[in-house]
Design goal:
single chain, Rossmann fold, 10 helices, alpha/beta, 4-stranded antiparallel β-sheet, 6-stranded mixed β-sheet, globular
Length: 256
């Protein structure tokens, strides 16, 4: 199965496809078109030669799982927050446990007083509140439980620290390894290096496509954005081993 735009750009089955570009370039709008949430004003999006604009919207939705930036924080138990990803199917403990593992959310549940039976709403008696990063992992578990043929993840690690971010991307790559197609939107281009295909958007237009190494070699928009981010993590070492001087009004760092 693949999605095809009018100019024959494709999303191959079982691969990680990254959409990158600056804010306002059209990345989120494009994935909403792919998911059938929007219909295109011009051109077509095809699922194996079936036009998404005329396809059965229920059947199309059944094939897509999505983790959006504004994922829902339902005031239900942790179990229901995961299983609501496919509410039309019978709730199974095996399915919930598998989704939690795929999302790397085991530690989230371990910290909850009643595990999966913990009510995630502090305003109610016995309720518990999660941090932003914990909610994000639960949102990914919800999408894993849905078992869509295509998983769309829009900035999936925005609320995570560096270590947790690496773990989440490892889980996402594992999903593609099982045959699920992953469409990834992220501003962190270091994470895109493991994608099979990258589409670069600029002001609503597709300007570059290729593997990460191919795009770095061409020196275009992707290479420019990658270099700008890489510079932020490149420490300049003083020459001749001379230590940099710290102004007197700057307090010394505390031990530990």
């Amino acid at each position: 199965m693949f999605i095809r735009a009018r100019n024959l750009h494709t999303v191959p089955l079982g691969k990680i496809v990254a959409l990158v570009g600056e804010n306002g370039s059209g990345k989120t709008t494009l994935v909403k078109l792919l998911a059938g949430l929007y219909t295109p004003d011009h051109g077509r999006i095809l699922w194996d030669d079936v036009d998404a604009a005329t396809a059965d919207r229920h059947l199309l939705a059944e094939r897509v799982a999505m983790v959006a930036q504004d994922f829902k924080r339902w005031p239900f138990t942790a179990r229901v927050n995961v299983a609501v990803g496919r509410s039309s199917a019978p709730l199974t403990e095996e399915g919930v446990a598998g989704a939690v593992t795929e999302a790397g959310a085991e530690e989230v549940l371990a910290d909850l007083p009643r595990g999966l039976d913990t009510l995630l709403a502090r305003n109610f008696s016995g309720g518990h509140e999660l941090s932003g990063g914990q909610w994000q992992r639960l949102g990914i578990a919800r999408a894993a439980y849905r078992r869509g043929r295509i998983l769309i993840v829009d900035e999936p690690t925005a609320a995570l620290d560096a270590r947790a971010e690496l773990e989440v991307f490892e889980k996402i790559r594992a999903l593609a390894g099982t045959g699920q197609t992953v469409i990834l939107i992220t501003h962190r281009l270091a994470s895109v290096r493991h994608a099979d295909l990258v589409h670069v958007l600029e002001q609503g237009r597709l300007v570059e496509s290729g593997t990460p190494d191919e795009l770095l070699a061409t020196g275009g928009v992707y290479a420019e954005l990658y270099s700008l981010q890489a510079e932020q993590f490149t420490a300049k070492v003083p020459s001749s081993g001379v230590m940099a001087k710290v102004p007197a009004n700057v307090p010394a760092p505390k031990a530990g």
